[in-house]
C-alpha cells in the first residue's frame, strides 16, 4: 500500500513543480519583481538624498576655495574638489534636488497636458481631433533633444526656461498614447451607459474613460522620468540648463570633461545619472509587469 501511495505522490509533485516552473514562491517573486524592487530602492535612496541634502552635505556646495582646488578624494573631501575648490560630494547631493525636481515637473506636467489633449481629441473627433493630432505630429517630426535645445537657446539660460523647453517637446508622446487608449475605451458599453444617464462629456472623459486607460500612461511616466533626467543633464552639459554656480549633474560633468587626470570631477556625477536612470528603468519595467495581467504566469 505504501509503495502504491509513493508512486502516486511522485507524479503529483512533479506536476506541481512543472506548473510552478520548479521555483518556490519567493524565487518566483524575485524573478518577476527583483529588478523592480532594486529600482525602487535606488529611486528611494536618491529621493531621500534630495530631501535631506542640507543635513547630509558636509560643505556649502557653492563655497569657493581655490587653495583646495582639484584635490583627490580623501577623508576630508570624500569625492574630491573641482576647479574652484568646491566639494564634489556636497555639490552632488544638492544637484539631486535640481535634477529630480526638474524631471518630475516636466514628466508630470507633460503627462497631464498630453493626456488631456489626446483624450479630448479621441473623444471629440472631427476638426478638434485633426487639429490636436496634426499639432502633435508637427512636434514629433523634430528630434526631441534638438527641438528642446533650440527652444532653450531662444529662451535663455535658466532652470525654468529649460523646463519650459522640455515641456514643449514632452507632451506629444503622452497625447499620442492617450489618443489611442481613449479610442479603444470610448467604444465600450459603459460609455454608452454614461451617456444615457445624461452625464456631461467632460465628466465621462475625465471620470470614466481616462481612469480606465491610465495603466499604460503610468508605465510611460515611470520610464520617462529617467529620460527626463538625461535630457535635462544634457541641456545643462551644453550650458543651457542651470545658472552657475547652482550644482547640477550635467553641468558638473561638463566642468570635468577636459580634466583627464582629475577624473573624479566628472565621474561621480556621471555615475549618479547612470544609477538614477537605471533605477527608473527597472521600476518602470516592474510597474508594466504588475499592470499587465498576461505577465502573471511568466
Describe this structure in words.
The protein has 298 residues and is mostly helical. The protein is 74% helix and 0% strand. Helix 2 (25-56) packs across helix 3 and helix 3 crosses helix 9. The chain is globular, with a radius of gyration of 25 Å. Residues 1-20 have low confidence and may be disordered.
Write the layout of secondary structure elements.
Layout: H1 2-19, H2 25-56, H3 88-124, H4 126-140, H5 144-155, H6 159-185, H7 189-196, H8 201-212, H9 214-237, H10 249-255, H11 264-291
Helix pairs in contact: 2-3, 2-11, 3-4, 3-6, 3-8, 3-9, 4-6, 5-6, 6-9, 9-10, 9-11, 10-11
Key descriptive features of the protein:
about 300 residues; mainly alpha; 11 helices; about 75% helix; about 0% strand; disordered N terminus
Amino acid at each position: 500500500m505504501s509503495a502504491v501511495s509513493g508512486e502516486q505522490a511522485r507524479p503529483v509533485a512533479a506536476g506541481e513543480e512543472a506548473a510552478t516552473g520548479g521555483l518556490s514562491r519567493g524565487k518566483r517573486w524575485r524573478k518577476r519583481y527583483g529588478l523592480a524592487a532594486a529600482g525602487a530602492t535606488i529611486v528611494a535612496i536618491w529621493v531621500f538624498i534630495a530631501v535631506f541634502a542640507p543635513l547630509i552635505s558636509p560643505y556649502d556646495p557653492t563655497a569657493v576655495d581655490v587653495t583646495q582646488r582639484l584635490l583627490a578624494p580623501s577623508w576630508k573631501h570624500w569625492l574630491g574638489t573641482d576647479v574652484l575648490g568646491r566639494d564634489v560630494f556636497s555639490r552632488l547631493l544638492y544637484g539631486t534636488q535640481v535634477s529630480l525636481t526638474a524631471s518630475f515637473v516636466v514628466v508630470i506636467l507633460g503627462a497631464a497636458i498630453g493626456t488631456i489633449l489626446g483624450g479630448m481629441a479621441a473623444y471629440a473627433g472631427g476638426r478638434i481631433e485633426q487639429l490636436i493630432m496634426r499639432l502633435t505630429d508637427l512636434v514629433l517630426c523634430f528630434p526631441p533633444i534638438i527641438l528642446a535645445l533650440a527652444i532653450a537657446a531662444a529662451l535663455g539660460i535658466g532652470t525654468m526656461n529649460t523646463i519650459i523647453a522640455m515641456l514643449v517637446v514632452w507632451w506629444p508622446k503622452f497625447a499620442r498614447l492617450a489618443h489611442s487608449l481613449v479610442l479603444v475605451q470610448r467604444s465600450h458599453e459603459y460609455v454608452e451607459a454614461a451617456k444615457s444617464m445624461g452625464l456631461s462629456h467632460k465628466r465621462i472623459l475625465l471620470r470614466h474613460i481616462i481612469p480606465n486607460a491610465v495603466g499604460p500612461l503610468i508605465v510611460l511616466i515611470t520610464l520617462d522620468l529617467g529620460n527626463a533626467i538625461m535630457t535635462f543633464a544634457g541641456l545643462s552639459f551644453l550650458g543651457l540648463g542651470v545658472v552657475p554656480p547652482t550644482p547640477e549633474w550635467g553641468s558638473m560633468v561638463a566642468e570635468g570633461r577636459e580634466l583627464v587626470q582629475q577624473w573624479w570631477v566628472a565621474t561621480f556625477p556621471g555615475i549618479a545619472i547612470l544609477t538614477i536612470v537605471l533605477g527608473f528603468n527597472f521600476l518602470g519595467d516592474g510597474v508594466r509587469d504588475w499592470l499587465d495581467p498576461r505577465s502573471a504566469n511568466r
